[in-house]
Structure formats: C-alpha cells, structure tokens
Design brief:
Structural class of chain B: mainly alpha
Oligomer: heterodimer
Order of helices and strands of chain B: HHHHHHHH
Structural class of chain A: alpha+beta
Distance between the termini of chain A: 64 Å
Order of helices and strands of chain A: HHHHHEEEEEEEEEEEEH
Distance between the termini of chain B: 18 Å
Number of domains of chain A: 2
Largest interface: A-B, 38 and 33 residues
CATH class of the largest domain in chain A: Mainly Beta
Number of domains of chain B: 1
Chain lengths: 279, 174
Amino acid sequence: MRLLFLLLWRNNFTLLFVVLQSFCIYLVVQNNKFQHASVLNATNAGVTKVMEGVSYVKEYVHLRDNNQLLATENAALRNTLNSSMYVSDTVKVDVNDSIGKQQYTYVTAKVINNSVSMRNNYLTLNKGSLDGIHPEMGVICGSGVVGIVQQVSDHYCTVMSLLHTKSRVSAMIRRNGFFGSLTWNGDDPREAVLSEIDKTVPVQKGDTIVTTEYSAVFPAGVMIGVVKEAKLNPGSNFHAITIGLSTKFDNLSYVYIIENLLKNEQRNLEATTVQSNEQ
Amino acid sequence: MIIEILYIVLRFVLLMAIQVLVLNNVQLGGIINPFLYVMFLLTLPIQLPKLLLLAIAFVTGLTVDVFQNTMGMHAAACLLMAYLRPGWLKMIAPRDGYETDASPGIRKFGLRWFIVYCSVMLLIHHILLFNIEMFRFSEFFNTLTRAILSSLVTLVLIVISQYLTSKPTDRNLS
C-alpha cells in the first residue's frame, strides 16, 4: 500500500494530467449528449454581455452589406403591396386572405453570437421569453432560412443553425412542388444536402429550393437556396442533391423570428389523428 | 519576480482578449481558425513547476471554452500540450541546457529553434482539438488537413507577434 502511494506521489505530474484530462473528457461527452447544457452556457449573462459588445462592432463592419440586403428586401416587399398589383375591375379573387386571419407574425432580433466553423453551430439572439419567444419558432433573414429556436431565457434565445448536423428542415423544389428534407453535411457553410427526392422527379441545376409548411415552423416559400449539383447514384432510388445556401451565415446581424399562430392547432389535430388511427 | 508574474498575468489577459474578441470571429475560408492564445502557454518560463503548468493550461483552455461554447475541448487540448511540453523542451535543449529563468522566445533561442519548438506543440494541440470537435474517426484525414492548416496560420501569427513584442536586446544579454 505504501509502495502504491509512493508510486503515485512520484508520478504526481502524470496523475494530475490524467485527472484533469478525464474531467475535460467528461465535460465534452456530457455536452455532446445533452446539447442543451452547452447551449444554456451561451445564454449566461456575463458571457452574453461581452458577445453583445463584439456584435456591436461587427454590425458596423457589415453595415454596407446589410443596407444592401435591406434595400433588396424592401423592394421585394414593395412588389407584394396591393398598390403595385394590377387590379382587374371585372373579377377580383383574393386567394391568400380568404380566411382573413393572420397566421404568421415576425419579430426582428439581433444576432449577438454566431459560429459557422463547427460541426454543430448555434446562434444567440437578443430576444427572449419576455418578447414572446419560445422554442421551435423558425428564424429567417432577408436572404433565406437561418434555423430554429432551441432554448429561451428571459432576454436571449439560442438558435440551432441550419449548419447543425442534427438540423432537418422540410424543403421543396419550387418549380414542381416535390418535397424532401434538408440536412447539413458538416463541412461547407455555403452548402447543404436535399435528400428523399425520388429519382423520377426531374431536378435541374439552378432550381430554387424553398421551405414547406409541413413542419408548421416556417411559412411556405421562404428561400433556402439553389440546386448546385444533382446526381443519381446507381442503386439508389433518390437523387443526391447539393444546394448552395442563399443565407450568408458568416455575416448575419439581423434576423426575423417567426411565430406561427396556428401551429398548435395544426400539431394537435395531427397528433389526435395519429392517435385515433392507432387505437 | 513579482514583476514577472504581473507580466504573465497581463499577457494572459491580452491574449485572451485578442482570441475571444477578434480571432474567434475570424474564419479563413470557412475552415481555418487561428488560436493565438496557445502562445501564452508556449512562452511560460521553462523552469515553471510542472503541476502549476498543468493547472495554468487547464484554466486557459477552460476560459476559451466558455467563450467559444465548447466546454472541455480547448481545455483537453491545452492539457495534453502542457503535459508533453517539459519532455519536448528537454529533447530540443541546447547543448549547455537552459538558464534558470529563461522563457522560450524567438530572440533568445533563434527563429529555427522556436519554429521547431512551436510547430510540434501546436500540431499536438490542434490535432487533438479538431478531433475532439469532430468526435468521429471516419473523417480523420479531413480533420488532419484542417488541423495542419490552422496550426500553420497560428504559427505565423505567433512568430509575427514575437517579433513585434520581444525586445531585440534579449539575445545579447544572455
């Protein structure tokens, strides 16, 4: 026994290394298992204060790009105004507003922390539960989809970026409406992969990919990106489609958080349908 | 002695600030992340007690982790580097050994020695860091390229900042 202690004491350097290293591994593994724990870290007050300062400076750096983005977006919105539509005075059919009830509301938020180089990327936004934000709300920016809200504290929320190995977004080809699911392969922040599109569906380079309404997170038709490459692997029933994302994740500074007012209704109905059929 | 400790603390704060405020926001080509803060560990005094070295490395790594939101990853990489540092220093020691109060520096030991010393340490740190981050071996070579490229950029940054900060008279004094 004394010998054992002597041995340990003589190798105290290695011993401390092993102890500390195993503690690190424990931290890492725990974080990989429960992403929440790590994400909550980013919402802690002291760290976010510093991050806010950084984003304050970054905002100025990207001012020119953002102005341009806002201008194009304004133009696009102006195009949808009633005043810019040609109204025929014989027949007037208003398809979108037939219910007369608002389904989506938008809240602007500032990105105060962001990453693109990791395998699992998160954003932190400066809106929280006090602003009516809750988990599973969609986040978009002027040029496309950004991600889905994951954790919310009083003044901040964290967003699972589209650039996350576990993110899945329902997406369709705008030209013909066939849908699949969009994932990120973990390498290039400018590319994503669209899977589950049947091989009989015609897909061309340059096709626009937009969101669908199926998940009740995003409104239909929000831009995701453009088909960069569509391959047919032998033996597979599905296309392998690479998409160039339209969102520039590395200079995001303002985004919109989307609330779907009818989400619970849709989810509940779907859940009860499944239940009643299983019984 | 007190002054020296103050210098080390000051260097820690300064390098952390640069790392957290500036370099964490830099992504060259989407895959290269420079980690200049490692320089703090590389330039600690050579005769520093080994246990203290480990403790400092752990705290340094953890500080970066808190801001990068990568609990434990940087700490693990720093620890391994600090663990191997005394051995590596012994292997590449000059023929007449080190002076008692020397710290590794470019002016004192020359560019060639410094690059040999830093590149191995940086490679150890970066390779472990990037592999922990990926957490899978199937893309080992992809990760390896990223690690090597990032270490190169970090090495260049370290050499530049060494030339900028250390006094040119150091070598004559020794």
